[in-house]
Amino acid sequence: MPTVSLADPDKSRLEIGITIRLAEEWKASLTTTQRPFFQAMIEQSEFHLNDGIPYNRLIEMFDNKELDCVVLRVPAPLEGIITANEHVTFDLILYIRRGDNPEVRDSLLIGHLANLPPVSVPYDSRIEFYGMRSLEQGEKLLLEGRIDGLIAHDGRYKDEQGLIAAPIPPIVHVRLGLLCHDTDYARFLLGQFDQRVQTIRSAGGREGAISEPVESHPPVL
Q1: Ramachandran area for residue 101 (φ above 0: left; ψ -120 to 50: alpha; else beta)
Q2: For the chain, what is the radius of gyration of the CA atoms?
Q3: pLDDT tens, position by position, 180-211
Q4: Of the candidates 136, 168, 171, which has an alpha carbon nearest to the alpha carbon of residue 151?
């Protein structure tokens, strides 16, 4: 096995950061094409998952090497950063309250996760965006009528009777990957991760169970 080359010579696990909170409800909303990526990441024993980290804090921790790897939008090649070959894609859509019609409103307040880059919503109304730390917060605000729409991945609220997808095309297509500081050990584990994703995908997502309990501890912020 390649040697570890981060500051801690006894390091046996990589600290993985992700803005998404890996709750059971969220995992249940994944499609069969999305599930293998997260299932492989959860099952890999050398990965210690730190979920639900605010975006700005995530970037700060990664830059300071408090985190070895992060799940983020796949960038152009960056010096000193390596990326798993496997990735996962999401279509982000606009959810509205059932029975509501955004087209007749003069102004709209749209909620989105704070880490979402600027997007365009195809309505003629005056649109303001409200950045949130979690989708759970956004769902509550939308159902209470305090915001008029919420941007989230397609399928996220398929079982929420009070919300429906707005009749417009997807807002943005997002490609997420696992990015790590470049070390021999990270390269070795990313290779294992890619193989695991492929194994789960070829088994039709039936190998293992993404709903199994996960040891996931957010860092001290």
Answers
A1: beta
A2: 19
A3: 999 999 999 999 999 999 999 998 755 444 44
A4: 171
Residue 36 Cα to chain centre, angstroms = 14
User: What CA–CA distance (Å, rounded) separates 149 from 56?
Assistant: 23
> For the domain with range 15-87+175-202, which CATH number is right: 2.40.50.140, 3.40.50.970, 3.40.190.170, 3.40.190.10?
3.40.190.10
Phi, psi (rounded to 5 degrees) for 107:
-145, 150
CATH level 2 (architecture), domain 91-172? 3-Layer(aba) Sandwich (3.40)
What tokens appear for 78 in the block?
């960056």
Phi-psi region of 80 (alpha: psi -120 to 50; beta: other; left: phi over 0): left
CB atoms within 10 A of CB 67: 25
pTM above 0.70, yes or no: yes
The tokens of 93 are what?
């859509």
Summarised one tens digit per residue, pLDDT across range 40-78 is 999 999 999 999 888 888 999 999 999 999 999 887 678
155: amino acid identity, one letter: G
Dihedral-angle region of residue 204 (phi above 0 means left; psi in -120 to 50 means alpha; beta otherwise): left
Q: What is the number of residues in the chain?
A: 221
